[in-house]
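PT: before anyone asks, these are the final sequences, not the draft ones from last week. 975 residues across everything. Please model them as a single complex and drop the result in this thread when it's through.
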Amino acid sequence: MEHIVIIGNGISGVTLARHIRKLSDKKITIVSAETDYFFSRTALMYVYMGHMKFEHTQPYENWFWKKNRIELKKGYIKTVETKSKTLHFADGDTLQYDKLVIATGSKPNKFGWPGQDLNGVLGMYHKQDLENLEKLAPSKEVCKRAVIVGGGLIGIELAEMLNSRKIPVTFLVRESSFWNGVLPEGESQMINEHIKHHHIDLRLSTNLKEIKSDENGNVKSVIIEETSEELTCNVVGLTAGVSPNIDFIKDSEIETGRGVKVNRFLETNIPDVYAIGDCAEQHEAIGNRRPIEAVWYTGRMMGETLAQTICGNRIAYKPGHWFNSAKFLDIEYQTYGWVHGSKGRPDYEQHFHWKHPKEDICITVAFHKDTNEFLGINTFGIRMRHEIFDRWLTEKRDVNHVMSYLKDANFDPEFYKAYESDIIKQFNTEFNTNLTTHKKSWKRIFSKA
Amino acid sequence: MKAIKHIGLVIFLIGLGIFTALPLLGTFNLNETDFNTIISNQNIKSEVFINELKSEVVGKDFNGMQTLSPKISKAISNANEAHTKNKEWDKKIYTKSSDMAAMIGKTSANGFIANNKGLVWFLTFGLGIIGALMFILPNVILLGAKGIKNDGIYHESATNRGWIGWMVFIFLVSFYLVLYFASEYATNWTLLVDPISEALSGNPAGHWFVYGFMYCVVMTVMAVRMYIKYRHNIYQVFRTTSVLFFQIVFAFLIPEIMVRLQMPYYDFKNAFPLDYDFFFQWNLKNLINNGGIGIFILVWGIVLTLIIVPVMVYFFGKRWYCSWVCGCGGLAETLGDPYRQHSDKSLFAWKVERYLIHAVLVFVVVMTGMTLYSFFTESGTVLGIQTSTVQNIYSLIIGSIFAGVIGTGFYPIFGNRVWCRFGCPLAAYLGFVQRFKSRFRITTNGGQCISCGNCSTYCEQGIDVRAYAQKGENIIRSSCVGCGICSAVCPRGVLKLENGPEKGRINPTEILLGNDVDLMDLVNQK
Ligand SMILES: Cc1cc2nc3c(=O)[nH]c(=O)nc-3n(C[C@H](O)[C@H](O)[C@H](O)COP(=O)(O)OP(=O)(O)OC[C@H]3O[C@@H](n4cnc5c(N)ncnc54)[C@H](O)[C@@H]3O)c2cc1C
Ligand code: SF4
Ligand code: SF4
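LR: through. Structure below.
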């Protein structure tokens, strides 16, 4: 029986294993150094915040693996020998494979800051980081202040976590406005305000220079690059992005760049070795996507796809329309298609922005200046129906259509206040159109394109 | 703000403490006249009983029910023993000793509590309400901006099965045990709400009136907590208002007022088979003897169960009943909300659920079949089994222990819907309709799920919502009561409760939206 070994029990590796099992009888082993069982990394924050226990982050009960004949092995793989198809574990053990899948995810970036390895400095990626944080910052009495470096999605989650225990947080963000590499100005501004509203000390256009230690090797303070200001703190969270967790294969024959280099079939340069998830790097970016996509959905989609290839139906990785979601403290964010921030925004991309006069609710719709083709939407504080936007993008609908049928796309809970008419009113004024909103229609919503 | 909260907690605990002490306090002195009235009202012919009470109880001062009650139960058992021996069946006393003690206690209570009902009401209910509101209201400010407020639930003893949780458990279980099995100890409580009961129905309060009144009070106070906690979520606000309305108006006020108007006591929203004794002989007789209104109730009860309930479930899902109307659901969604995370999500629990709840449904249907058979044929037995024995077993095991003691008492340990999930025969019936013929579903939003598990954790019905959502599948489960909390707590906006066309409601998927469309077709069409 062919033996498939998957390194990494994250969403990509586990999705792959599940799908291989559905398609075949192959022997499957998942190796991970982090935990015995798959858990949802995205939910780490909720454990610290007391919304859940760690066991709740595990999507499958423990019997699931045995029942599906997926072997789990805990251990850290130190080297990969592709010639003899052998994996070497840190503890000296070895494992033979017929096909190998690298799904080792990411690790937090460290940019060589002085003091970045002190006790009290941590990332927020692995389960061990969570345990570490619980030790270092159990309460506001033990941790008098925390400084977070890097204004991305994990940074703001870490800020929310600490905030939930009333620990004062200073949030250093390199950009001039939160996440404005991705978000258009209006939205980014709104999030800035929201962060401050939660009493988080947000410092924009601010870089870390150095982390200082006390006599015991614990974090004492950080120094800010721009002002040389010294901030006393007990914990420093490094959340300036992630990069592929692939140091252990740097010496193997597998080609790597920032990540493990793969073609569209998720194959590496070595036969029978594949890479998926956060650690995979496409030779060429697919559409507007980045060559490395460290998001949950990408890992899952790659797992779904690679299972076909491994089970004899060689298929290229062809992701559909881009979508993503996040939550900024209390504000939910969803996006479908492409809406660019000021950086990297193509000339033809025009935006329509509507914001609620009082609440933290807004949308930005991107469309082609000349053809009016709908390109994408960002929504804050309004939930939207994935299927509808996916269909509109496939059908290349124009922005007027999207505006008129926005009610079909609304996914807020029942009885929520709807804003479609306000939105369309503003759109009509700005673009001199005469659109009217159409009533929501189940027939349209459920008709498959 | 914090200080107000703390003071509120202290006040609440004082009120609760006095309330808890009341069953053991109070003085009782049964005078000759009242005693004679009871004897003649109850049609008691046992001279053994009468003499023993005359010598042991009448005219004597008792401090606390615990001194009075044993005397009465002893007298009853002595009397019955003697009469059984002498085969004097007509002299035997069939009134339960706790009912007899409650009756005697109620008429003979004299001391401070009986003479200061208003004051003691204030010291118990009043302080409880004021304290609880002082504890809850500051959350408007303390909880900060609106949004999901689950911080610290698993850190706190009360909501994480810590010692506070266990204390609440002990309190609730004891309370239900008193209510169902030792109602004489509720005598003092009944005194406090006599004025309210008299104003409504014209009668003094019994222990079920205390329960009904407390139910409304607790739900109202905890509904305030719900309003504050979920103030960003209008679905929750509407739903809470609805259960509160149905509890206060339909379950509490209307039945009491009907009694005042010489009509049968009836809760118009309590549908059979949850209302398991609807077809019991005494109820049918009572309804039939009550003329027009009785017949109306009889027809309404049948139409409610056979037509209204399933048709509404077809259009809206069982939520219209279970989390918008029902009293059990109402308490679960208010008092029980802090405990919703304790429902067991394992496959094992789901199996237990399906066996148990359907067994109860079968039980109630068989029992009702026997009851009706007995009613129409006027024979007490069916196939040699006594109908009344079956009814008593159901009332005791299901009606009292399961629905009451376990259903509510176990909130802090097993979550707030133990009864609704494992026991309620009406829920089982609605569940069939919801599962097989309904427009209701929880739609999963394409591929947006990140498997975080918030939805499953907070599903009070123990549904592993994530298991569906992470596959892109809609959630169609007979047990879902449509509380909407899974949708509320989802950080990615993945879940929406909605009523739509039946076609495509159940949508098993393997590959989620967002991936290669050809791959989706290939795998999902199989
Ligand atoms: C706090 C946080 C919040 C997030 N929120 C979101 C979100 O909301 N939406 C979203 O789209 N994405 C989110 N992400 C990103 C998302 O979690 C990742 O993209 C995804 O988990 C990557 O999955 P993966 O399977 O590629 O790798 P991982 O989940 O990282 O799994 C890889 C596993 O391999 C193990 N491993 C690595 N090297 C070795 C070795 N040599 N030997 C043995 N085992 C090894 C690792 O220990 C790890 O357990 C979040 C990430 C974090 C950290
Ligand atoms: S699935 Fe959702 S709506 Fe249904 S009972 Fe569970 S939490 Fe409530
Ligand atoms: S809460 Fe939402 S994102 Fe999290 S597992 Fe449930 S459906 Fe998925």
